[in-house]
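Saturday, quiet lab. Running sequence design on the structure tokens for the scaffold JK sent over.
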């Protein structure tokens, strides 16, 4: 701590020192959305004009460096999942697009039968001439771990599809809820914003990147990759990793690059220009990209169906039994003060657990932590 305070006085403008001395901070409700590594309000999606996004897409890329995993031991297979994603896309007035390298760049060719099966689901297959960006800087390793090393920068390819107003570039196992409305999100993106979510140990998670695609956006991102360098100790271009990045994770790929370029860099002119032009913001990860590591932080969204998408196919619903519904409010009764939320109920459960909301749902159901004896017992056991 003292080292950091000294550094704050003496190390102005020396990002590399920063990288070595800033301690990692766990995510909290207040730091669910970040800008320049500080917790900020999440982007208010209600503030964007309904209908701005006319042409929308859910896009995934696959590098064909390994066999396309058609089956999964733990969850639905690829085609079953794609059928769901295509359905969600249709409901949201969006295309479902999968980008592959051109056949001659596929190390493990994707079978024609698989392509045909995807197309039968209404999915559009598009091709990229390259996998790793052709002029990738020597300061960025091609094999840097993760699923695909620098091949993950294939995600930049669709960000140039300017015929769309708004697009979500998502991992193949990003899992939207069947009835999720992505309209407000697409609209805010179509107003020209880049929107992301953080992860439990990273300030930007690469499973969900929402962008207003254009030639210009793709060109700027590729240009930044032509000169950038990344180092495990000093971060991207020596600007450090910041406190929201677990230093055990080397963010040499898409999400680390996106974070540096849109949400962290103060030293790069190209990044400053991109930050002004694309107004990067974050949306609530508990709603748009709920990850396993957020099971505690996002308990309410998880348990009460407010989450619209998960970052991986498997998402645990256990431990939901004693979680209050934050959105429950007792119907107004004459003389009641202090609001009718579960918090209020918890102060006098004996009298208040019988209250109902406008829809007739009682506090005894919506506020189990105060009104269900099993939850009270469990809590007392835990605090002993
Ligand atoms: C946006 O407009 C569409 C079409 O008019 C409508 O169905 C939808 O409910 C609106 N969404 C919101 C959030 O107002
Ligand atoms: C797909 O079909 C084309 C045309 O018949 C053929 O040239 C190609 O080798 C096939 N690709 C694979 C991966 O089987």
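Result came back. Writing it out in full:
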């Amino acid at each position: 701590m003292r080292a950091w305070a000294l550094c704050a006085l003496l190390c102005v403008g020396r990002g590399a020192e920063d990288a070595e001395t800033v301690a990692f901070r766990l995510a909290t409700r207040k730091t669910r959305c970040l800008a320049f590594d500080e917790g900020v309000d999440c982007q208010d999606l209600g503030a964007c004009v309904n209908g701005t996004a006319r042409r929308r897409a859910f896009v995934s890329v696959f590098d064909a460096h390994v066999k396309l995993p058609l089956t999964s031991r733990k969850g639905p297979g690829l085609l079953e999942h794609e059928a769901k994603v295509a359905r969600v896309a249709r409901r949201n007035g969006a295309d479902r697009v999968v980008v592959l390298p051109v056949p001659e760049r596929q190390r493990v060719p994707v079978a024609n039968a698989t392509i045909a099966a995807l197309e039968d689901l209404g999915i559009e297959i598009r091709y990229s001439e390259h996998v790793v960006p052709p002029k990738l800087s020597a300061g960025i390793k091609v094999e840097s771990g993760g699923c695909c090393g620098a091949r993950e920068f294939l995600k930049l390819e669709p960000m140039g599809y300017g015929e769309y107003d708004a697009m979500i570039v998502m991992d193949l196992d990003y899992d939207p809820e069947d009835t999720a409305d992505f309209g407000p999100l697409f609209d805010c993106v179509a107003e020209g914003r880049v929107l992301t979510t953080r992860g439990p140990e990273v300030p930007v998670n690469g499973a969900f990147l929402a962008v207003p695609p254009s030639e210009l956006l793709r060109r700027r991102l590729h240009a930044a990759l032509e000169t950038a360098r990344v180092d495990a100790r000093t971060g991207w271009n020596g600007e450090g990793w910041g406190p929201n990045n677990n230093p055990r994770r080397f963010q040499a790929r898409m999400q680390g690059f996106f974070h540096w370029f849109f949400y962290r860099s103060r030293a790069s002119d190209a990044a400053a220009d991109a930050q002004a032009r694309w107004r990067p913001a974050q949306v609530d990860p508990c709603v748009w990209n709920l990850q396993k590591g957020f099971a505690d932080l996002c308990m309410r969204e998880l348990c009460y169906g407010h989450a619209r998408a998960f970052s991986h196919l498997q998402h645990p619903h256990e431990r939901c039994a004693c979680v209050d519904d934050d959105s429950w409010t007792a119907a107004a009764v004459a003389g009641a003060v202090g609001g009718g939320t579960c918090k209020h109920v918890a102060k006098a459960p004996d009298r208040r657990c019988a209250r109902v909301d406008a829809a007739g749902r009682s506090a005894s159901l919506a506020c189990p932590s105060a009104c269900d004896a099993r939850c009270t017992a469990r809590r007392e056991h835990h605090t002993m």
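Notes for JK: DSSP finds 15 helices and 13 strands in the chain. Residues 50-51, 183-184 surround 2-acetamido-2-deoxy-beta-D-glucopyranose (ligand 1) (CB under 6 Å). Ask whether to fix the surface positions before the next round.
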